[in-house]
Design brief:
The protein is built from 14 helices and eleven strands. The chain has 351 residues and is of the alpha/beta class. The strands form four sheets. A four-stranded parallel beta sheet has the order 4-3-5-6. The chain has a three-stranded mixed beta sheet with strand order 1-2-9.
């Protein structure tokens, strides 16, 4: 399976990924090679990484998994580990993990010694189809998602679908949400085929999702225009994710679970403001509720979630900007939404 060219680097899949990494390290003359893992990837993925790639690491750094640890404090720990283990500007950091780890590891590498090389090896479906492309790195600010970070490209991204065998079904379905989003914003045929696909972890589906996101990102690397369409479902979805993260009485939602709710809500807004058909809206709602349990929100929850919208990264001049759909496969950006429609959207979600 050929590689996908993304801006200044390549995304390699399966067997070609092994050869690409070996060749890169052989020619790069790195002073040290470090690997960043969490407790899950250390147990389930690191042995396969060592077996398949036969790369000698000078040190392996372990952090705690989960969004709650995607903080500047964790970065400080890794910066110190790099420094204590003789890291310099010619070092390489390999990030072996899901989106939280690759986002954080990429940010750590981008800022240590004003920037060292890093390679991402995503181990979850979500990170393979989403975090693998685009160069977004960073951490959360408290419970607010991805408020601190930079856009900086890795040397390469290596995708091994075999890592998916280490995941539970909840993690797999979380990644499926982002794949469905790719169809909704850019490719109606992909949406149609994917929503009835039994094995969406197949390498061909993963490659298709990566290719869709890559096509968008290469047109707009710094998110000034079309790249914003990748945020469909994320404006309300991130607010929901943050609210559940900071509220001890709520179960924490995985990213894809929160975004699935966000896509139903923003689908409703699309119907109200941009002419998305009632039939398409119902199709979106039915598809997500087939795979994701409905989340219960009371009036106080909804009020708090709406308040969190003011922290969304796409905001400008005090306005909350949404990505909405004119039709399945066709998204529009920078849409202002009246506050009363948020409440109607949640009422539709509850129906």
């Amino acid at each position: 399976m050929e590689f996908i060219k993304s801006q200044s680097y390549e995304v390699h899949l399966e067997e070609l990924a092994e050869a690409a990494l070996r060749q890169h390290i052989a020619k790069s003359n790195y002073s040290k090679v470090f690997v960043l893992v969490d407790e899950n990837t250390k147990k389930h993925c690191l042995p396969l990484f060592k077996k398949k790639l036969d790369i000698k690491a000078d040190a392996i750094f372990e952090i705690l998994s989960g969004e709650i640890h995607k903080t500047i404090e964790t970065c400080s720990t890794v910066w110190s580990l790099l420094s204590d283990n003789g890291g310099d500007r010619k070092s390489l950091l390999i990030n072996l993990g899901g989106g939280v780890l690759t986002d954080l590891g990429g940010f750590v590498a981008s800022t240590f010694k004003r920037g060292i090389d890093f390679i991402n090896i995503p181990t979850t479906l979500l990170s393979m189809v989403d975090a693998s492309v685009g160069g977004k790195t960073g951490v959360d600010l408290g419970s607010l998602k991805n408020q601190i970070g930079v856009i900086n490209q890795p040397q390469m991204v290596l995708v091994f679908p075999k890592f998916l065998n280490t995941l539970d079904s909840r993690q797999i379905v979380s990644g499926y949400a982002e794949m469905l989003k790719h169809g909704l914003i850019k490719d109606a045929e992909y949406w149609k085929s994917l929503k009835s696909e039994n094995d969406f972890t197949d390498a061909k589906c993963i490659k298709k999702s990566i290719a869709i996101k890559n096509d968008v990102v290469t047109q707009d690397p710094t998110e000034q225009g079309i790249r914003k369409i990748l945020n469909f479902g994320h404006t309300l979805g991130h607010a929901i994710e943050s609210y559940c993260l900071e509220n001890p009485d709520r179960e924490t939602l995985l990213h894809g679970e929160a975004i699935a709710v966000g896509m139903i809500l923003e689908g409703f807004l699309s119907h109200e403001l941009k002419g998305l058909s009632k039939l398409s809206l119902q199709e979106i709602k039915d598809t997500f509720l087939t795979h994701f349990e409905r989340v219960d929100f009371n009036a106080e929850d909804i009020k708090a979630i709406i308040t969190l919208l003011k922290y969304d990264k796409k905001n400008s001049h005090g306005d909350v900007n949404f990505v909405l759909l004119q039709a399945i496969g066709k998204a529009v950006t920078d849409v202002k939404v009246p506050v009363d429609l948020f409440h109607k959207a949640f009422a539709y979600y509850k129906e």
